[in-house]
Amino acid sequence: MSGRNEFTDAEIEGIRSELRERRRTDPHRQEIIQGRLRRVGFYITDYSHDANGLTVSDFDEMIHRGTIRQRS
Predict the structure, then answer these.
(1) How many other β-carbons are positioned within 10 Å of the β-carbon of residue 15?
(2) At what angle do helices 27-39 and 9-23 cross, to 10 degrees?
(3) Euclidean distance between CA atoms 49 and 52, whole angstroms
(4) Which of 30, 41, 57, 67 could potentially form a cystine with 4 if both were Cys, beta carbons 3.0 to 4.6 Å apart?
(5) Is beta strand 6-8 parallel, antiparallel or unpaired with respect to 69-71?
(6) pTM score, two decimals?
(7) Residues whose CB falls within 8 Å of the CB of residue 19, separated by 6 or more in sequence, listed in order
(8) Could you tell me which of 41, 4, 50 has the C-alpha nearest to residue 23?
(9) Could you list the pLDDT tens digit for every one of the 72 residues in the chain?
(10) CA-to-CA distance for 33 and 36, rounded, in angstroms?
């Protein structure tokens, strides 16, 4: 694992927002978003082999299962 698996409430909301935007934008912008995600310690490749396939619902499911932990 390259990144973290525990995030604050604010970080989780930011990750959700970035994942939503990443799915709707062009490849150049996706790279920029991916860089912002990495800066908070979230590496898509830690959780998905298909970087383009990670959705907000996938992310929320990982929180539900405890793969990603939420701290206040």
Answers:
(1) 21
(2) 170
(3) 9
(4) 41
(5) parallel
(6) 0.90
(7) 37, 54, 55, 56, 59
(8) 50
(9) 789 999 999 999 999 999 999 999 999 999 999 999 999 999 999 998 775 678 999 999 999 999 999 987
(10) 5
Burial 29-49 (b: 16+ CB within 10 A, else e): ebeebbeebeebebbbeebee
Locate 60 and state its tokens.
């929320």
Separation CA 52–CA 72 (nearest Å) = 29
CA angle (54 as vertex; 49, 41 as ends), nearest 5:
80
Q: What is the pLDDT of residue 64?
A: 96
- Provide the residue ranges of all domains of the chain, joining segments of one domain with +: 6-62
